[in-house]
Design brief:
The complex is a heterotrimer of chains A (489), B (100) and C (499). Chain A has helices at 2-11, 14-31, 36-61, 83-106, 109-131, 135-153, 159-190, 195-201, 206-223, 232-238, 241-267, 274-295, 299-321, 327-356, 367-370, 372-386, 392-406, 410-435, 449-464, 469-476, and strands spanning 64-67, 78-81. Chain A has 489 residues and is mainly alpha-helical. The two termini of chain A are 36 Å apart. Chain B has helices at residues 4-25, 29-50, 61-91. Chain C is an all-alpha fold and 499 residues long. In chain C, a hairpin with a 2-residue loop joins strand 1 (62-68) and strand 2 (71-76). In chain C, helix 3 (79-102) runs parallel beside helix 13 (327-358). The two termini of chain C are 32 Å apart. The chains are: A mainly alpha (489), B mainly alpha (100), C mainly alpha (499). Chains in contact: A-B, A-C. Chains A and C meet through helix 16, helix 17, helix 18 and helix 20 of A and strand 1, helix 5 and helix 6 of C.
Chain lengths: 489, 100, 499
């Protein structure tokens, strides 16, 4: 029996299914909008199963590589999965499922019919992105993801939403074009876009540095690294809550993933000084984003600026991890924790918005006893964002802080601590108001359980990550994406 | 003597820069969208030009890339124009408002 | 997981699980809530007694859960841990009864009791933690769990107090985190060990160690209300009385003081710490806080605020005992951890009774209250005499050993601090007693509630009487084998005399 299951799991081509299923789902949703919710939920469940299957497969057989249609590089497209891809796919499937359940209750019917095809398309693009093995395929998926994300931003069809979406679209197109230009340069110099082939051929030449500069700039723009974050707050705050959650949790992580992948495989061996610039911008992002978050009076804007700050941490790790590759696992873990916590926060904000009809922080009006689950979700997510134990955020920040002190990088260490303090300040600014009575009491509408529980479960996930770091790090290290060469983390 | 491939490549780079300038400097959304298209065309030109690596048969891969790229660019432009129209009907303006 | 591994975990879970269940309970299911609360408290108490018996017979209770490959969550029941665990589990049981009576008809009880249980979970975790990282985890959990209790009433004043509390404690937590990580990068371990684990380090690290000591004590000093980090405590008085009782007698301030004990004895080792030259400044700071707190208490008319400043002063006795760095002073400091808890919780219970029964919040309103509520005021009197340090109440024992220890360690100046503080204690407690017992009661009390045959509800009356008797007993029976004093002696012997 066990061997039967084993054969079954190993014969199925999980990565191909991961891309195809959401794509087919998207088409079905588009053609039969009436059954969109059902189709969507079935697709998400199938995607969850596929990710589980892929996890098993990777654990059993190590990294996966598959030439689609048997063509192979350079003309064909290769799919590739290692621990790094797996963890991103896992995050996407988990967060995506919770948000999907949430959206069934949150979105109005006409929004829902528009939401599902685009969201499943986004899911297909994300999965394909995490499974791509060449730079050009990454470009195509990146662009697909960007267009789907922009469309979702505009979903609520208000002026603010169109504004945010337009700003986002221009930023994301500019970012992709920079990236595409870099591909042209790299292809000219090294005659390949396959990441592993490039890794063998690349050398320290002006072309490769120009390409790296363009890739960094383009992807930093898409990841909203300070000072290229200007598009993020309006886009993430004007979208409907489930979309904001998708954007903050998954979409910005995807461009970060490409940057990380490209850096690790191609440019890090060249020994770049660029890491210091990343570190500096990361520090500025943490401080600036947190202070901006603290200044906001609207909950969703506060959360959006918090994303700007948290992205800073990801970049602050570059100078540290370039001396100590084990640390990349911590960076990835931080991205994962942030994805769970931040989506939980946006979903809670959505609950509050539905409940009170507004998201003014000063008028939250005793939600702590009226919506205890939502308040708990926000608070638990906050624990991870602040980096307090026990949470995934804490584990990552502990490792980063330890590395910073060991390497004598007190500037980074102090900014991490200071960023945690600021995060506590803006999170408790919200939580404090949930206990008090607002000056104007407002009409309260019931919030269904299918909106409260996804938020709470995501937040609990961020907490649970604090206890399962060892097995998760085991997954991340499959295929040795960080070039540890057998060194135990 | 500049070879024709290099000339195309230089023109491509020039178009990219020109587009970038336009994207940043002009407030009108249609101009911004056009600027992005100019940038994209610049890159495509560059890709095609760089395909002539050695004399004789040009490399086919960049051509494949350009075709894919054009498809992507068309859909992006369509989305951008659609958004612009929506924005224009909602705010009777074809510019993005200043950030508050 | 063996039995001896699971018991420390069960001690933690026995309040966590009821707390989580209560969070989901509907407001009107008060019977189930009370049952769960008491059940948790009783189970915890029983488990702790079991552990106490086991440790007495040489059993070893330890649980290790790996967080990262070289970072573990450790729960361990050593003598010092047990001292604090017993204190918290006994006082939790008593406070639960009190809180049930106190919050009889007020709203949001589910939330209150849920976070109340979480607080105790965190306190017990702090007590049982076997290394710095576990300590840090529960220390932060305590911060988070007490916040909803401080803002419980949901008024603007409560929110402000909560904000102040957080600014102090989160800042303290950040200092503690930085110190802990730094320490870890030097030593590679965080395991609490008798006589410390840093003394083997190369002398070139000593400046860093001094900085780490300052960071850790700074982080812990916030909760221990060490001057100048005490500002949150008087403001936190807006919380309901059981919270004040629990926060001030057991949970928050004690977690800080307990942490200082841990850091000095089991991270640095007291002899090494004093050779680094960091204990004397700490002793001076503690002495200053003792006098400062007492002086401020003298001028407070609000009863709870007066008690709060008294707490600031009294908790620093523990720090002082630790910082004198001698075996006898250690006994005094460690035993005061228990004694101060018993006495101060009594006083806060009584203050709560006065407020709840007669609407009295200020010292100046207490004229003749002793005749209306003799039992409450009798308990209060015992607590107050204990604070002053009058024999035979427990406070006397602490001060006696502190004084002896100071002389033993050639720190004669401490005697003056103790004497001065006792005088000040007398100066702010005796007028209260005089007012309560000897002045003429008014015709009508502020907001009197009638509780029938007894002076107040039984659930409110019995807890302070029990804790007052315990405080008296800890003093009278100090030489009995299981008294807090004897435990403190064992702990001090382990730190100073064992190889």
């Amino acid at each position: 029996m066990a061997s039967l299951i084993n054969t079954f799991i190993n014969t199925l081509n999980w990565p191909v299914l991961l891309i195809l299923l959401p794509l087919i789902g998207a088409m079905i949703c588009f053609i039969w909008p009436r059954s969109a919710i059902l189709t969507g939920l079935i697709t998400l469940s199938a995607v969850l199963c596929c990710v589980a299957g892929l996890t098993w497969q990777l654990l059993e057989h190590g990294v996966y590589r598959h030439p689609v249609g048997g063509w192979g590089a350079p003309l064909g497209i290769d799919l590739y999965a290692d621990g790094l891809s797996l963890i991103m796919l896992l995050t996407t499937a988990l967060v995506g499922s919770a948000i999907s359940v949430y959206s069934t209750a949150y979105l109005k019917p006409q929004e829902s019919t528009r939401f599902w095809p685009v969201w499943l398309l986004l899911l297909a693009a994300l999965n394909a992105l995490f499974l791509s093995a060449d730079l050009f395929n990454l470009y195509v998926t990146l662009e697909l993801m960007g267009l789907a994300a922009v469309t979702l931003t505009a979903l609520s069809a208000t002026r603010q939403a169109y504004n945010g979406a337009m700003r986002y679209l221009l930023a994301t197109l500019l970012g992709s074009l920079c990236y595409l230009l870099a591909i042209a340069l790299l292809y000219h110099a090294y005659a390949t876009v396959d990441i592993s082939l490039l890794a063998q051929r690349v050398d320290s030449s002006p072309v490769s540095w120009a390409a790296f500069g363009l890739i960094s700039a383009g992807l930093a723009l898409k990841t909203a690294l300070f000072p290229l974050h200007f598009w993020l707050p309006p886009a993430h705050s004007s979208a409907p809550a489930p979309v904001s959650a998708l954007l903050s949790a998954l979409v910005v992580k995807a461009s970060f993933y490409i940057l990380l992948r490209v850096w690790l495989e191609i440019f890090a061996p060249l020994g770049a000084g660029a890491v210091e610039l990343f570190g500096l911008l990361g520090m500025l992002a943490v401080v600036w984003g947190s202070i901006q978050a603290l200044r906001q009076t609207r909950l969703k804007l506060l959360i959006a600026y918090s994303t700007v700050a948290q992205i800073g941490y990801l970049f602050m790790a570059f100078p540290l991890a370039s001396n100590r590759p084990q640390l990349w696992a911590a960076v990835l873990y931080l991205a994962l924790s942030h994805a769970l916590a931040k989506s939980a926060m946006f979903l809670s904000a959505g609950n509050l918005l539905k409940y009170g009809g507004h998201d003014r922080i000063s008028d939250l009006d005793r939600v702590v006893q009226r919506l205890p689950l939502t308040a708990a979700a926000f608070a638990l997510a906050g624990v991870s964002i602040m980096g307090l134990p026990p949470s995934g955020g804490f584990i990552s920040k502990w490792l980063l802080l330890e590395a910073a002190i060991t390497q004598g990088r007190w500037d980074l260490a102090l900014v991490m601590i200071f960023g945690g303090l600021l995060a506590a300040a803006y999170i408790f600014k919200v939580l404090g108001r949930t206990f008090t009575q607002a000056a104007t009491t407002h009409e309260a509408r019931a919030v269904p359980a299918s909106m409260e529980w996804p938020a709470l479960l995501l937040a609990l996930g961020a907490i649970v990550l604090g206890f399962i770091a060892i097995p998760m790090f085991g997954l991340i290290h499959i295929g040795d994406a960080f070039g540890l060469g057998g060194v135990q983390p | 003597m500049i070879s024709s491939a290099n000339l195309y490549a230089l023109t491509g780079s020039g178009l990219f820069s020109l587009g970038l300038y336009g994207l940043i400097m002009y407030a009108h959304l249609l101009r911004k969208i056009l600027a992005i298209n100019v940038m994209g065309s610049g890159i495509f030109l560059l890709l095609v030009a760089l395909a002539y690596r050695s004399p004789g048969q040009p490399d086919v891969v960049p051509h494949a890339m350009v075709i894919t790229g054009i498809v992507v660019a068309v859909s992006a432009t369509a989305l951008a124009l659609g958004l612009m129209l929506k924005l224009a009907t909602h705010s009777s303006s074809t510019q993005l408002p200043d950030e508050d | 997981m063996t039995l001896n591994e699971s018991i420390p975990l069960l001690v933690v879970l026995s309040s966590l699980v009821p707390g989580l269940i209560i969070f989901g309970l509907a407001e009107e299911r008060s019977t189930l809530r009370i049952v769960l609360n008491l059940l948790g408290a009783v189970i915890k108490f029983a488990l702790v007694i079991w552990m106490l018996w086991g440790v007495y017979n040489g059993q070893h209770y330890e649980l290790r859960i790996a967080l990262l490959t070289d970072l573990e969550l450790v729960l361990r029941a050593g003598p010092l841990a047990l001292l604090f665990v017993i204190l918290s589990s006994v006082l939790w049981l008593v406070t639960t009864v009190y809180a049930i009576g106190y919050l009889e008809n007020s709203p949001f009880r589910s939330r209150f009791f849920s976070f109340f249980s979480l607080c105790v979970t965190a306190t017990v975790g702090v007590a049982l933690s076997g290394n710095m990282i576990t300590f840090l985890l529960f220390y932060e959990l305590l911060t988070l769990a007490t916040y909803p209790l401080i803002v419980h009433r949901g008024t603007e004043q409560a929110r402000k107090a909560g904000q102040t509390y957080l600014i102090y404690t989160i800042f303290g937590g950040a200092l503690l985190l930085l110190g802990t990580v730094w320490l870890y990068t030097l030593t590679g371990t965080l395991e609490f060990t008798p006589r410390g684990f840093v003394s083997q380090l190369d002398p070139s690290h000593y400046p860093a160690l001094i900085m780490i000591f300052i960071l850790l004590i700074g982080g812990l000093g916030v909760k221990a209300a060490l001057f100048p980090l005490h500002g949150w405590l008087p403001q936190a008085m807006v919380a309901p009385a059981p919270v004040s009782a629990l926060l001030h007698a057991v949970a928050v301030v004690k977690a800080g003081a307990f942490g200082i004990v841990r850091v000095v004895y089991e991270v640095f080792g007291v002899e090494f710490a004093s050779s680094l030259g960091v204990t004397t400044p700490l002793a001076i700071l503690a002495a200053f806080t003792i006098i400062f707190g007492s002086l401020r208490a003298l001028f407070q008319d609000d009863l709870k605020r007066r008690l709060a400043f008294s707490t600031i002063s009294q908790v620093s006795y523990i720090t002082l005992g630790v910082a004198i760095a001698g075996p006898i002073a250690t006994i005094g400091g460690v035993v005061h951890l228990v004694h101060q808890g018993l006495m101060k919780i009594t006083l806060f219970f009584c203050a709560g009774n006065l407020a709840e029964t007669l609407g009295i919040h200020k010292v100046s309103e207490m004229n003749g209250v002793g005749r209306r509520m003799p039992w409450t005021m009798a308990a209060f009197t015992i607590g107050a005499f204990g604070m002053i340090g009058a024999p035979p109440v427990a406070g006397f024992i602490s001060k006696w050993y502190l004084g002896l220890g100071a002389l033993d360690a050639d720190q004669g100046w401490v005697i003056f601090v103790l004497a001065g503080s006792s005088l000040l204690n007398a100066a702010y407690f005796l007028p209260i007693l005089h007012t309560a017992w000897f002045k003429q009661p008014p015709e009508h009390w502020h907001a009197e509630h009638d509780f029938g045959r007894h002076e107040t509800a039984l659930a409110l009356l019995i807890p302070p009487i029990i804790t007052a008797l315990l405080a008296l007993g800890a003093g009278l029976l100090a030489s009995v084998a299981v008294s807090p004093l004897e435990w403190a002696k064992i702990i001090a012997a382990r730190e100073f005399y064992q190889p």
